[in-house]
Specification:
The chain has about 220 residues and is of the alpha+beta class. It folds into 2 domains: about 130 residues, D-3-phosphoglycerate dehydrogenase, domain 3 (60s Ribosomal Protein L30, Chain: A); about 70 residues, ACT domain (Alpha-Beta Plaits, 2-Layer Sandwich). A 6-stranded mixed β-sheet has the order 2-1-3-4-5-6. Strands 8-9-7-10 form a 4-stranded antiparallel β-sheet. α2 packs parallel to α4 and α6 packs across α7.
């Protein structure tokens, strides 16, 4: 007999009627904020599938905005997400697309931060408040947010992966799961997605950058 937890049966605590459309959407917004890094000033959301068809009634738009501002799925402030975003100087807008997609609860997030840096993220709400980030800046990835996650943009050259793993081991970070991505062979940049048992602190990030000069950018979730 398959075992189920109370969370599996009851679902996550949340504001709104649907774990996929509200809890999952809030987590997508929250993780997108961590990937963006700096303070976002404008964000354009494109919703697909069921998100687009019933998202207004289920508050998917408010949950995405709330998550982007750091709210948990059960935070009552999600109901006032539009006003709170305006008060913080965050401009948001939405498209409700009829374009067919692989997964029904899909969102594309296009953000510009205070430094003028643009980031594009595609993610899915896969049920029970769980999510999957499938694309960052047109690069296919797999990020669940279930573990502390480190996304490293680095020069695609021999030895970089072993250097990063060695430094993380010296810092006491145990890697639970790791995957490497790149657009194609010979590209200047590649990405590592590392899920670990313990978080990579800001001090650890600084050491990693100093000891691994081929690392261009770090994103921590």
């Amino acid at each position: 007999m398959e075992n189920f937890s109370v969370f599996d049966i009851i679902g996550p605590r949340m504001t709104g009627p649907s774990s996929s459309h509200t809890a999952g959407a809030a987590r997508l917004g929250y993780i997108a904020r961590r990937i963006i890094g700096a303070e976002p000033v404008h964000v354009h959301f494109t919703l697909y599938g069921s998100f687009a068809e019933t998202g207004r009634g289920h508050g998917t738009d408010k949950a995405l905005i709330g998550g982007l501002m750091g709210f948990r799925p059960d935070d009552a402030r999600i109901r006032s997400a539009y006003k709170l975003a305006r008060d913080q100087g965050l401009s948001v807008d939405f498209d409700w697309s009829e374009e067919p997609v692989e997964h029904p609860n899909t969102v594309r997030i296009e953000a510009e931060d205070v430094n003028g840096v643009e980031t594009e993220i595609v993610g899915r709400s896969i049920g029970g408040g769980n999510i999957l980030i499938t694309e960052i800046n047109h690069l296919d990835v797999e990020v669940t947010g279930d573990y502390p996650t480190l996304i490293i943009q680095h020069h695609d050259m021999p030895g970089v992966i072993s250097d990063v793993c060695r430094v993380l081991a010296q810092l006491g970070v145990n890697i639970a799961y790791m995957k490497v991505f790149r657009h194609s062979r010979g590209d200047e940049d590649a990405y590592m997605c590392i899920e670990s048992d313990n978080p990579v602190t800001p001090d650890m990030q600084a050491i990693l950058k100093r000891l691994c000069p081929a690392v261009h950018n770090l994103m921590v979730i």
